Amino acid sequence: MLLRLFFMEQEENIKEKVRMMFVQMSKIDFTPLFELDRQLSANPSLRSEFVKDPLKVAEIYGFKLPDSLKEEGFHLRCIDTDNRYYPSEKVPLSNSCKRMRVKYLGQERKSGLEQLLVV
Fold it and tell me: Disulfide: which of 25, 37, 58, 89 matches 113 by Cβ 3.0-4.6 Å?
């Protein structure tokens, strides 16, 4: 019974956290990512910089991800026409993973442009 109550409480916490994240995401201006997407396709040196710190490069183009979403592990990736991810999915993004306040729950929400992915 106690274990069941614990999981019910956790379920409500997770539902509320997800709801808050979607509310925050609905307020983000994703417009700057369209130009970043075009530039990543056209400029290999920019892609190299993007791999090192995707959010820093996105901020140069005017994209602002709220700190609260960064803390939850939201991050950016680029996917090329051969379905390769930059930065690679095989290596976790250390900056975003260090900031996560909760353990990874196996839930991913991907939103994409042509090649740019918000995860």
Answer: 37
Beta-bridge partner residues of 116: 78
Give per-residue pLDDT as tens, 26-37.
899 989 988 998
Q: What is the edge-to-edge ordering of all strands in the sheet holding 111-112?
A: 85-86, 76-79, 116-118, 111-112
H/E run at residue 11: helix 2-26
Phi first, then psi, for residue 79 (nearest 5°) are: -120, 125
What's the predicted TM-score (pTM) here?
Answer: 0.67
Phi, psi for residue 39 in degrees, rounded to 5: -70, -35
- Do 106 and 112 touch, CB atoms closer than 8 A? no
The DSSP element (H or E) to which 77 belongs, if any, is strand 76-79
Query: CA–CA separation, 101 vs 70, rounded Å?
Result: 10
